[in-house]
Automatic annotation (TrEMBL):
Stated family: Belongs to the eukaryotic RPB4 RNA polymerase subunit family.
Protein's recorded name: RNA polymerase Rpb4/RPC9 core domain-containing protein
Record-linked Pfam families: RNA_pol_Rpb4
Keyword Nucleus: yes
InterPro entries hit by this protein: HRDC-like_sf (IPR010997), RNA_pol_Rpb4/RPC9_core (IPR006590), Rpb4-like (IPR045222), Rpb4/RPC9 (IPR005574), Rpb4/RPC9_sf (IPR038324)
Domain RNA polymerase Rpb4/RPC9 core: 2-107
GO BP terms in the entry: transcription initiation at RNA polymerase II promoter
Length: 107
């Protein structure tokens, strides 16, 4: 019976979609940083004010870096793009991280 069930599930496309969906859902739950949808909206809104590219916004929002060094190591385009260069740029990055930290604490 188990061999037949396994064969049917391997050959049934809807079963494969279900398995992919289930694995994806488990992955997302494991790495989910924010439990409240309002917090996610707030993170996006906060980071959008800094003129970030979508990749930068997603990376910073999801990885929850603690330091400017971590943020620029994980998102090198913050420094290479020229938007966050020098003392003023460093202060903007610090402000972004502080804003994200506050959202996470208030969740």
């Amino acid at each position: 019976y188990e061999q037949i069930q396994q064969h049917v599930s391997e050959s049934d496309p809807s079963s494969q979609v279900s398995q992919v969906f289930e694995k994806s859902l488990q992955y997302v739950k494991r790495f989910s940083r924010y439990k409240n949808p309002d917090a996610v909206r707030q993170v996006r809104k906060t980071l959008s004010r800094y003129g970030l590219a979508e990749f930068e916004l997603c990376t910073l929002g999801n990885l929850c870096q603690d330091t400017r060094g971590e943020a620029t190591a994980l998102v090198p385009s913050l420094k290479s793009g020229g938007r966050f260069v020098g003392k003023a740029g460093n202060e903007k990055i610090e402000k972004m991280l502080t804003d994200l930290s506050l959202i996470k604490k208030l969740e």
